[in-house]
Write a structure and sequence with these properties.
- The chain has 197 residues and is of the alpha/beta class.
- The protein has a domain at 26-34 and 71-195.
- 32% of the residues lie in helices and 17% in strands.
- Strands 3, 5, 7, 8 and 9 form a five-stranded mixed sheet that branches. A four-stranded mixed sheet has the order 1-2-6-4, with no helix packed on it.
- A hairpin with a 6-residue loop joins strand 1 (17-18) and strand 2 (25-27).
- The longest helix has 22 residues, at 44-65.
- The protein is globular and about 45 Å long.
- Mean pLDDT is 79; it is low at 1-21.
Length: 197
């Protein structure tokens, strides 16, 4: 279900993104929405709205999807020998990929391990992306993981990582989650780092 388009060159850049030579691109959501998201992200009122929304929307969905006890899988080898994959719901994808639908998108994007910050874009409207556009590691900590691999804190990084956008329905997201889980399992990954937006 990887619905990213694999275009190259100047035609791969969406007109809906602002390009930058040193950092990720911003997908425009409109100035009014940007102001609203910044207000919600940076005020006590916004924190209260987020808390209410998580209780009213997310928790009931999770309760319906969760069947029985959540399985716990302990690591079977030291962290320094583990292969680690990064999965983000911050709307991160390659600039050459089709941006996520900002209202609701159940697809995912594959992000190769060698992707640099300037190769990435953020398509999401539910959080203030200002800081993430300055430092992609806030929502997609690929550079920090590379440092941990270089220091032998973790064994190595997976060849591919995964990005998701905004999706209001957990049920509609399940096919993509299952596909990503299958890919992760087949690639021999020991540990998945899940980074929410």
């Amino acid at each position: 279900m990887d619905t990213s388009s694999k275009k190259t060159g100047a035609t791969s850049r969406s007109a809906a993104t602002t390009t930058s030579s040193r950092g990720p691109a911003r997908t425009h959501i409109g100035w009014l929405k940007e102001l609203w998201v910044r207000f919600l992200s940076n005020t006590e009122f916004g924190a209260a709205v987020g808390h209410f929304a998580s209780r009213a929307i997310a928790l009931p969905q999770l309760r319906r999807l969760a069947v029985g006890a959540i399985p716990w899988t302990p690591l079977r080898k030291p962290l320094s020998e583990c292969t680690v994959v990064l999965v983000s719901t911050g709307g991160v994808h390659l600039r050459s990929d089709r941006p996520f639908n900002l209202n609701s998108d159940s697809s995912f994007r594959v992000i190769p391990n060698d992707a640099q910050a300037e190769d990435l874009a953020i398509s999401h409207q539910a959080y203030d992306r200002t800081d993430a556009l300055k430092d992609i590691n806030l929502v997609f900590p690929i550079e920090r993981l590379r440092e941990l691999a270089a220091e032998h804190v973790i064994g190595r990084l997976a060849a591919n990582h995964y990005g998701f956008g905004l999706m209001g329905s957990a049920k509609r997201l399940m096919p993509s989650l299952k596909e990503v889980a299958r890919r992760i399992s087949e690639s021999g990954v020991d540990l998945a780092l899940l980074v929410p937006a």
